[in-house]
Specification:
Strand content: 25-35%
Order of helices and strands: HHEEHEEHEEEHEE
Largest sheet: 8 strands, antiparallel, barrel
Helix content: 10-25%
Mean pLDDT: 89
CATH topology: Cyclophilin
Distance between the termini: 76 Å
Structural class: alpha+beta
Length: about 220
Amino acid sequence: MRILSAALSLALLAPAPAAAQSATRATPGYIRVRFDTSAGPIIVALDAKRTPATTKNFLAYVDDGRFDDTVFYRSARRKSDPKLGFVQGGIRTDARRILPPFPHERTDRTGVRHVDGAISMARRPEANSAGGNFVLLVGAMTSMDAKGDFDGYAAFGRVVGGMATVKKILAVPTGGGLDAMKGQMILDPVRILRARRLDGTPRPTGLPKVWLINIKR
């Protein structure tokens, strides 16, 4: 009994895993962003040191409020295991919110891989086409990493808080969609109420927020 009590005491005194710590405080080289969604909060830590261009672009969307009042609109579940896959959210095709393109950062150069909980940029087939849409992974997805002539997708951090929310979004009813997205569109999109950085000073672009302009007809 004394041995068990001693073991429990040591467990309580032991430091929490790095991922758990970074949900509540800053970790050097990372910048945290909190999403408040209609399904619950999500906190991601962006690897500013190894993926500077992708992180800078993402934070510009955050600091400008371009993710506010957008949605998670896609849930891509694996057929072999529906509990694994990814959810996709962001500005969709809203041209009023989009920012200029930026250089693609390949995973085989950054070392930031598509592991469980990774955040990565969605993009079109052409180079440097990522913008204001992103995915959150449930389970590793090495097929998204760059290899040879395949540029892959730009992973640039991971979820450090609210993974239960991500899994909840992954499980919502889906349908519709075309081609690669067939059957994956969330029927009742999960709202992104707002996104805010938790570390550092916001640096808005200063560009006009045309999506906030009410057009009277």
